[in-house]
Amino acid sequence: MTDTTIEPPTVSTRRAATMDKVAALCKRRGFVYPGSDIYGGLANTWDYGPLGAELKRNVKDLWWRTFVHRRRDVVGLDGGILMHPRVWEASGHVVNFNDPLVDCRTCKSRFRADHLIEERLGQHAEGKSPVEMTAILQAANLPCPNCGNRTLTDARQFNMMFQTTIGPVSETGTQVYLRPETAQAMFVQYKNVLATARVKLPFGIAQVGKAFRNEITPGNFIFRLLEFEQMEIEYFVKPDAGAAAFEDWLSAMRTWLRSVGVRDEHLRVREHAKDELSHYSSRTVDFEYAFPAPMGWKELYGLANRTDFDLRQHQEHSGEDLTYFDQETNSRYLPHVIEPTFGVDRTLLVLLLDAYDEEETLDVNGKPDIRVVLRLHPRVAPYKAAVLPLMKKPELAEVARRLFERLEGEVGVLVDYDETGNIGKRYRRQDEVGTPFCFTVDYDTLEDRAVTVRDRDDMSQVRVPIADAPAWLRDRLA
Ligand code: ATP
User: Fold this and answer.
1) Which of 232, 332, 356, 379 suits 281 as a labelling partner, its CA being 20 to 30 A distant?
2) Which mutation among 287, 298, 301, 346 tests ligand 1's pocket best, with the greatest number of atoms within 8 A of CB?
3) Which residues line ligand 1 (CB under 6 A)?
4) Packing angle between helix 130-140 and helix 113-121, nearest 10 degrees?
5) Pocket probe mutation, ligand 1, options 44, 283, 299, 301, max atoms within 8 Å of Cβ
6) DSSP single-letter state for residue 183
7) Partner residues linked to 450 by β-bridges
8) What is the DSSP string of 361-414?
């Protein structure tokens, strides 16, 4: 083993993550950049950089494999972002998809009334009408959080759907919406799926895609975005089977969260009170995550029993018969629907927050130092391994290149290759981007045909014959 690759022991400091530290790492290492950066940015828009794009793909691919490929009862759909405007009348979004807003008459700042009630007054606000919220805010005589004047307006509703126009002339074109959720395509295409996919109840339709919401108080890095991705399933069941299917999905969602490495102690399930339920739901739970202060517990995912609300609405508005013919009972009915919904961007955020760690250590000169390490689960880590020739020398590079090609080709995963700079710094860079294993090719390699494999988490090193390296990595990732 090569001395130059041995690092001093470290002490871990728990929950090192803050939103600012994670956002800074994301920019520094190419996970997430501010949107339109060279134009000074566009508030609350973000672009995923090279490593963010990989992390996101890994999460979406894993989700698809887990919930579509590995199940015999779920099929996929890839619907459009633009849909007939009547879809959103039927779904209730035109009337109900509102945020309650208050303005400050003095400084013109705008706030979500429900957030003010929850965050400033510590009361629950979901499900309350604007009149009720106004009454609560007025009773508390709440000052404007921005300028301090007691000049907040009454709460009023603001529809969150983005509108655009089909056709060259905006006055005569058709007004359409950018979809605010992916769910509706699954209801609108339910009949086509039923006719073509040879499915029987219970079955689900899954979709991953963009959704758009004109959020008034976006922020907290990628937590609340104007444009985001959802991974959703509409699971159709017999009318009396909703409650049992709900429990099954609750447990499937927990299993998923564990499988991508979210820590149990940062998760809780919160049941919605009756007055908090959305217009379509008979039961909803939120998976909440303990975000670093000052955010605290906030929604990560949701699970809702949508009953037959959506199919019934679309049946009425479209005039199409959307009933299901049950051959067993020789009867027709509208199925009920259980909807597990997973935000892609929030998944990435919690994976990064849970993975971020700082360890007190010593640098190469023996001075106190902090090692930043992203302890991402190998399943989702952008690079599964890195190949590092100890020095930039042709004889090492040749072996390292061949190893890189074999790992990439035979294991079929993304591998980094880095030959510049001192080896300690290269390890630190891989630690910061969450690469689980570094394969170092050194001068001993030329003699013994083996490489040093360094583990990201405990920095332990083992010597592995080059011939066995692909199998060794495949075993670790399995
Ligand atoms: P919130 O209460 O945080 O606004 P919501 O209850 O409106 O969320 P849903 O309509 O249930 O959210 O959307 C399903 C999932 O989509 C959420 O659990 C979340 O993961 C994700 N999501 C919703 N809105 C946003 C957003 N503005 N930015 C990023 N992800 C979002």
Assistant:
1) 332
2) 346
3) 181, 213, 215, 224-225, 228, 230, 299-302, 341, 343, 345-346
4) 40
5) 299
6) H
7) 465
8) EE-TTS-EEEEEEE---TTT-S-SEEEEESSS-HHHHHHHHHHHHHIIIII-S-
Q: How many CB atoms lie within 10 A of CB 180?
A: 20
Residue 22 has pLDDT above 70, yes or no: yes
Q: Which residue has the tokens 């998944």?
A: 347
CATH 3.40.50.800 domain locations along the chain:
383-477
Fold of 383-477: Rossmann fold (3.40.50)
**CA distance linking residue 240 with residue 58, whole number of Å:** 36
Residue 249 near residue 66, CB atoms below 8 Å: no
| Interatomic CA distance for residues 275 and 128, integer angstroms | 8
Q: What is the CATH number of domain 59-95+161-352?
A: 3.30.930.10
Contact, 431 vs 371, CB < 8 A?
A: yes
Q: pLDDT tens, 267-295? A: 999 999 988 888 888 999 999 999 999 89
Angle ∠(180,181,183) on CA atoms, nearest 5: 145
| Centroid of ligand 1 to alpha carbon of 470 (angstroms) | 40
The residue type at 301 = Y
The CATH 3.30.40.230 domain(s) of the chain lie at 98-159
Is residue 454 within 8 Å of residue 461, measured between CB atoms? yes
Gap between the terminal Cα atoms of the chain: 26
* Tokens 């692909």 -> residue: 470
Residue 42, Cα to own-chain centre: how many angstroms? 21
For residues 121 and 140, what is the distance between their CA atoms, to the nearest angstrom? 8
Considering the chain, tell me which residue range(s) the CATH 3.30.930.10 domain(s) occupy: 59-95+161-352
CATH label, 98-159, candidates 3.30.40.230, 3.90.950.10, 3.10.180.10, 1.20.1440.230: 3.30.40.230
Length of the chain: 478
Contact (Cβ atoms closer than 8 angstroms) between residue 453 and residue 470: no
Q: Are 114 and 126 in contact (CB under 8 A)?
A: yes
Q: Which two tokens stand for residue 147?
A: 């300028």
Asked if 150 and 141 touch (Cβ cutoff 8 Å), the reply is yes
State the residue for tokens 């303990």.
290
Nearest-angstrom CA–CA distance, 395 and 2: 17
Cβ-contact 459, 7 below 8 angstroms: yes
Residue 235: pLDDT band (50, 70, 90) is: very high
Question: Residue 170's pLDDT is what?
Answer: 65
CA of 367 to the centre of ligand 1 (A): 45
Query: What band does 206 get if pLDDT is binned at 50, 70 and 90?
Result: very high
Question: Is residue 8 predicted with pLDDT exceeding 70?
Answer: no
- What's 104's DSSP letter? B
| Residue identifier of the C-alpha nearest atom 26 of ligand 1 | 224
CA dist 114 and 23 (Å) reads 27
